[in-house]
Design goal:
Distance between the termini: 87 Å
Number of strands: 22
CATH class: Mainly Beta
Order of helices and strands: HEEEEEEEEEEEEEEEEEEEEEE
Radius of gyration: 28 Å
Number of helices: 1
CATH topology: Methylamine Dehydrogenase, Chain H
CATH superfamily: YVTN repeat-like/Quinoprotein amine dehydrogenase
Length: 271
């Protein structure tokens, strides 16, 4: 009896080993995990098409082009404003001051409403485009730096590597992306402009603009704008800041804080 039981156990063990080997043989081969292809950012220089006058008293924070005019947000407490400016002459056509306790920041235009951020006051303002009449305020938990729109959502920077999307009606954050270049976070993202499916962002205290893929956050291009101002024009001027785009005319405009000029430029690939 013991011999029969031992023989039966041996047969069952052998059968289990055979089935186990068959199972392994039939299991699908696990392919190696896909490694994302690194994004290599392209580099661009520029040529100047036209240089327009710009108010040297404007500490430019946000810039928007619309139908032949510019809308501009300026900073510094006690000097912050929202302006409507004639592109060709630099003349201020309409002006609204911001209360002295606020430091004006990014600006964008959507559905005939101007949206303006403030720096450290966690407060944004919404104005009627035509009258500059304030229609509401909104709050956010971060600092306010740059602001643009893709025609549907507001897109906001706060000086970090994070860019947030806001619903233009509720002003609630709907999603966020982290901006990286070759896998490394890119911080100091400032003034924003949505151009042809990309987010252009000034990098504060540099002469560079990052071109960002809004789906992935990857920097797909770098624009070097060094040398825009002559050394004599640099006297009294602060850093590059201010991007606007004429979607119909395919024109790109840039300026800076206290700059004497606003430039229409064309990008030139390097290398």
């Amino acid at each position: 009896m013991r011999i029969k039981l031992t023989l039966m156990l041996a047969i069952l063990c052998a059968l289990a080993l055979v089935l186990s080997g068959t199972s392994r043989a039939l299991s699908p081969v696990q392919s190696p995990r896909a490694v994302p292809t690194p994004v290599t950012a392209k580099n661009y220089g520029y040529t100047v098409v036209v240089a327009y006058p710009h108010d040297t008293k404007a500490f430019t924070e946000g810039l928007v082009y619309d139908n032949g005019v510019l809308y501009e947000s300026t900073g510094m407490r006690g000097q912050s404003s929202v302006r409507k400016v004639d592109l060709k002459t630099g003349k201020v056509l309409k002006y609204r001051t911001v209360a002295a306790r606020y430091f004006g920041e990014g600006l964008t235009l959507l559905n005939n409403r101007l949206f303006q951020l403030t720096w450290q006051e966690n407060t944004g303002f919404v104005y009627d485009k035509n009258s500059f009449r304030p229609t509401r305020t909104f709050s956010y938990t971060t600092e306010g730096w740059g602001l643009t729109t893709d025609g549907h959502a507001l897109i906001m920077s706060d000086g970090s590597a994070t860019i947030r999307y806001l619903d233009p009606n509720s002003l609630a954050v709907t999603r966020a992306i982290t901006v990286t270049d070759a896998g490394q976070p890119v911080t100091q993202l400032n003034e924003l402009e949505y151009i042809e499916g990309e987010i252009f962002s000034n990098v504060w205290q540099t002469d560079r603009i990052a071109r960002i893929d809004p789906k992935t956050g990857h920097v797909v291009g770098w624009i070097d704008l060094s040398g825009l101002l002559l050394p004599t024009e640099r006297i009294g001027a602060d850093v590059l800041n201010g991007i606007a785009y004429d979607a119909k005319g395919k024109r790109l405009f840039v300026t800076g804080k206290y700059w004497p000029k606003l430039f229409e430029i064309k990008l030139v690939p390097k290398g």
